[in-house]
Design brief:
- A hairpin with a 2-residue loop joins β9 and β10.
- By secondary structure, this protein is an alpha+beta fold.
- It contains 5 helices and 11 strands; from the N terminus they run ββββαββααβαββββα.
- The termini are far apart.
- The chain is globular and about 50 Å long.
Length: 246
């Protein structure tokens, strides 16, 4: 019973990999959601309450719970933040607690990477990055904005894509595409695209303003149907497999 974060032998809690509050928009009237997959041989499944496993001890789970609670307040209301300002290419929110929200976004990627559940087998950071991220989380060190920084994007064009985003959770997956030579992991939940930039030289990343800064200014980029083709093709694949049948 080794805690994935502190590495100590302790009783483990059931830890949600993606916080349970992200599932609220996809639950049906019986508090269930469907798991669908394009993988050959996979069948549609039903779960009643998020996806979790024995991952963290009570102390570490409580620490992550604090980050999750703050992330929920920032994204869904309740945090002490300034009213978003509308810019041409982004919505910008100020007065975010940099340490809490940065550790929250970092923990999402790390939890998915260390999870042994099949739903997250596509999220593997690799030894050096996984261990470095673990140490930063254990030390409660958010690092610089570019260190495992996350770009948040919202669909800002097609209503049908925005509607689908609200009813979808996609676990983080490594993209074939690299940005300026940096590896990229992309996920979708909470009506947002989450894009983490992962490499040993992200300090050289030229678009630093897309990350939340240490003053607590958080940009949410207007994606302009960034994921339209991807979601359209995904829907077609799931329909072919009968995953979307009533």
């Amino acid at each position: 019973m080794i805690c994935k974060l502190c590495k100590q032998d302790k009783p483990l809690r059931n830890s949600h990999i993606i916080p349970e509050f992200f599932y609220s928009s996809i639950y049906d009237e019986r508090h269930r959601f469907y798991i669908v997959s394009t993988a050959p041989g996979e069948r549609r499944g039903i779960r009643p309450k998020g996806i979790y496993e024995k991952l963290l001890c009570e102390t570490c789970e409580d620490a992550f719970g604090d980050y999750d609670d703050y992330g929920r307040k920032v994204l869904f209301g309740g945090a002490s933040i300034e009213i978003p300002k509308n810019y041409p290419d982004a919505y910008v929110t100020s007065n975010i607690n940099y340490r809490k929200f940065k550790l929250f976004s970092m923990s999402l990627l790390w939890r998915a990477s260390v999870s042994e559940r099949i739903e997250f087998k596509i999220t593997k950071l690799g030894g050096p990055h996984e261990e470095r991220l673990r140490q930063m989380l254990y030390d409660k060190n958010p690092g610089e904005p570019y260190e495992y920084g996350c770009i948040l994007m919202v669909e800002n064009n097609k209503p049908e894509v925005m509607d689908l985003m609200g009813r979808l959770i996609l676990p983080p997956e490594k993209l074939q595409l690299r940005i300026e030579g940096h590896r990229v992991f992309r996920a979708a939940f909470g009506n947002l695209w989450w894009v983490w930039v992962v490499s040993n030289h992200t300090k050289s990343f030229s678009k630093q303003k897309v990350f939340m800064d240490q003053h607590g200014t958080l940009p949410i980029i207007k994606a302009k149907s960034h994921g339209f083709s991807f979601l359209k093709n995904l829907t077609l694949e799931l329909e072919k497999k009968g995953m979307l049948d009533d």
